[in-house]
Amino acid sequence: MKTSPVTVRDLRRSVLAVPPLCRDADGMVSLAENRRLTAHLRAGGVTTHMWGGNANIYALGVSDFPAFLDVAEACAVGDEWALPSIGAEFGKAMDQAAILSRRAFPTAMILPMRGVVDRRGAARGIGMVAAKMGKPLIVYYKDSGYLDMADLKALFADGSLCALKYGVLTPDAAVDPELGKILKAVPPDLVISGSGELPVVAHAETFGLRAFTSGCVCIAPRLSMAILAAIQSGDFARARAIRETFLPLEHAREQHSPIKVLHAAVGLAGVAATGPLQPMLSELTEPAVLDALGREAKALLAANETMKVAAE
User: Fold this and answer.
1) What is the pLDDT of residues 132-170, one digit of tens each?
2) Which residues lie below 8 Å from residue 108, measured CB to CB, with a gap of 6+?
3) The domain spanning residue 228 has which CATH number?
């Protein structure tokens, strides 16, 4: 497992996969099924596993956190990067940061706090969590106005942050004043397009981002890695063409819940058995929805296999 400090090369060498967290029938984290999932990613060239929102780390208790870290670490082969998340609540994040201070993970992503939060308080809390962990964090910037730009710049300058995952969605990803403001405070090399395949080409072409996270990469890692290669080489037409393959499943995620759809789709595609969702989320149960998801997930997997054959 990668244990060295985070670099720009780490952010760019692979799509940052954001997988679901596979559980057994009793709801326990399954080492075997999570290894199946990461092996599928590895076969497609993906070497970074960011366990965050799609894994519903929000619902993970502090007492369960060390066992989860053991699984995340065990899934990382060689110098693969296992990237856990913490929070979102301040007290929970501080407890998890104390645990991580004794582990070899080089960073963690701090999940976005919502509700009882303001910009100045969020910046202060992020700095305190990073100090407790003794390593820089990746901040998940998901809501417009989450942090003041001067505070954001200071958090990078003092070493509290090493990267930013940008997940604010706009009607047109190429028109995004919030992202423009962030890029005046943070170098583009340290900003990750954080909403999957939907905005990634616009974020690359218009704003210069060259790293991105994806959930659907868990089904089609070769295709997602081909998008990464295309945007890094400046071939945005090719990136847009490959992106079309992901749109049916991405639109389903928009319609029914990004977490629930991906959790179901990975299982329906046969990549890994994802098991039950943790409360407070319910399962997708409508037969018509599940049938459609199964078709879309299998079609995406088939397209991934077609690219594998073409590459060979």
Assistant:
1) 999 999 999 999 999 999 999 999 999 999 999 999 999
2) 83, 84, 85, 86, 96, 97, 100, 133, 135, 137, 138
3) 3.20.20.70
For residue 103, tell me if it sits in a domain: yes
Q: What is the pLDDT of residue 115?
A: 87
- Only one residue has tokens 């399954």, namely 30
- The position carrying tokens 């959930």 is 215
Looking at the 3D structure of the chain, how many domains does it have? Answer: 1
Q: Is the confidence at residue 312, as pLDDT, over 60?
A: no
Whether residue 63 is contained in a domain is answered as: yes
Residue type, 14: S
Q: Which residue has the tokens 């397009």?
A: 193
Q: Is 239 in contact with 230 (CB distance < 8 Å)?
A: yes
Is-above-0.85 flag for pTM?
A: yes
DSSP three-state, residue 113:
coil
Element (H, E) at 10: helix 8-12
